[in-house]
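[job 4471] stage=fold_predict status=RUNNING
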Amino acid sequence: MDYWTFCLVFSFFVKLVNSVYSAEASPAPAPIPKDKLLILTVATEKTDGFNRFMQSAAYFNYTVKVLGMGEAWKGGNVGHSIGGGQKVRLLKDAVKDLADQEDLVILSVDSQNLHLACGSVGRVFRPWSQHLHSVIVSNSMIGYAPYINRIVSKWNLDDNDDDQLFYTKIYLDPLQRESLNMTLDHKCQIFQNLNGAVDEVLLKFGTGRVRVRNTLYDSLPVVVHGNGNTKMYLNYLGNYVPNAWSYEQGCSHCDDDLVELSQLKVYPDVLIGVFIEQPTPFLPEFFQRLLTLDYPKDKLKVFVHNNEVYHEKHIQRFWEENRNVFKSFKVVGPEENLSQGEARNMGMDICRQDATCDYYFSIDSDVMLTNRQTIKLLIEQNRKIIGPLVTRHSKLWSNFWGALSLDGYYARSEDYIDIVQRKRVGVWNIPYMAHVYLVKGSVLRNELKERNCFVLEKLDSDMALCRSAREMTSHREKESPSPESFHMLRPPKGVFMYITNRHDFGRLISTANYNISHYNNDLWQIYENPVDWKEKYIHQNYTEIFTANYMEEPCPDVFWFPVLTETACDEIVEEMEHYGSWSGGRHEDKRISGGYETVPTDDIHMKQIGFDKEWLHFIREFISPVTLKVFAGYYTKGYAVMNFVVKYTPERQAYLRPHHDSSTFTINIALNNKDVDFQGGGCRFHRYNCSIDSPRKGWSFMHPGRLTHLHEGLPTTNGTRYILVSFIDP
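[job 4471] inference complete, writing structure tokens
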């Protein structure tokens, strides 16, 4: 290359580099001022979706003009956008007066199924407009007022015609597209349509804010639209954007529009619907929790549907004791032979038909509410439908789903585990809930005014209700729409359902393996429902053994401590008496190895009533920790072959001669009260000449079994004495 050629090439290269750097260094186009951006939306009534849209617009300080509010909604052909033509007509009338404002940008959107995810509409649109695009379309549309006017002025169809088909035909016409400077938002820089793109859209958590991100184009869309099944994903996104929840601030809207019950002169009337649809453990405790709810009882009516004959005795007992506590108490029993859906329809309709019913609180018998303020807290949250989060103990099973699969069943949302474990706390818009929820009476008389909410196709009753709330279209209209009904169909309103985990409300109990063949069936629930089992059967002072050294040592190395409740003692005795086959205190005993008992008692073994596995679990859970405390350095295996209830009476067997136990250590629990149920009794330890003659019901002795603690059972002189004995680590 000669010198002059080199200089020419080098000069061209320098100019090229300078032009590139100059372009990169040039300032970005100024955003469109917010007073030059007008959002137009069509809504005939204030639905939950509309209110959410307006909330996001207010957050960004956008100017919104609502068209058609209060107008009757006109339908469209089935399978098309209902009332689409009505939207275009209203938009046409509104834009006509704005057509001369050449610098005014109009964003036309559907407020029912749309969310504003960030506040940069003007900033994003300006670069597009500088490239001669006056209108950008997707499911929504943005553009300069004169061009929007030119588009909608072409509308000359009916209100029930399809608006999307109208816009599509204009765009597909090359001449019209060019004359209107129209383009599509191919890379979702402004508009994100979720239909067919859910897998591409994620939440992007930043410092103090959350954005919607399209992972395919790495864009941050401003307007997010959902239709069909994607509305549920839109609701999920709306739990976070634009400012609903973040890691730094938590829930930003949880305290919006609260109802201050303390400021009300009269509390709202609530109908409680209780549903016992299968055998349920701890039902008496369930009713007691209902009774102790902190809410004026003269404002509570109770409707109970019981589908189980087994539970009639529990309901009868509760009714007899509390018949005058509530404003009313109605029971529909198994003799009515109602399905779940029919029973739930009946309960909800009682509130619907009663103009004084302000709220309907539905609760299944497998819900243990531990928060006495539950009804108050739900009412104060002021949502149309809201449920308290309840979960299975130490499991991820709860009363809500964070997402649905395409066929309408369970799918796990990204935030489900965090919500269940209360790592994210707030009030969450969800597609499905069950077991326990509160519904406003006004909603039952308006949006959910159709009685048959719980019976739909082949769906379970709870799924049918949630679908009814989400879609809000008459079942009859969906199944067989008539031509004359096309113009009367209402737009799907989509009543939002919420779950709150702002407080600890309680738990779900397991009913799956509940065997009702025993006399006191809850005793067998130590595995399935350990928390409820402990609350019912373990002495209230048991934990003080470890926190306050709450025990006694009446004789050397004989420790005395509380372990069982009176209820546990009574039910164990009842179970044994119901079984009835007492051994009679004979030496010959086929129940034990060798068939001979040296020091026999009149007893029944735990194994005989099928309670041996449960009792060994009790020993490991509640006796082993005490053993380690009092016999430091000894780690029990928690194993015992001999676990039995002894019955002492003056007539059959009043006492037990001196003996050692075939155990490393023994526990001996008193199952009834001295001087009330019997006289006499007690235990004497010979080596120490020490007697314990006033056993306490529910308290256990623990003492070494061999060598040092020869002991005898003192005579029972009157009545019947019961004790429960285990020879541990034989």
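[job 4471] summary: Residues 6-10, 12-26, 76-82, 474-491 have pLDDT under 50 and may be disordered.
[job 4471] exit 0
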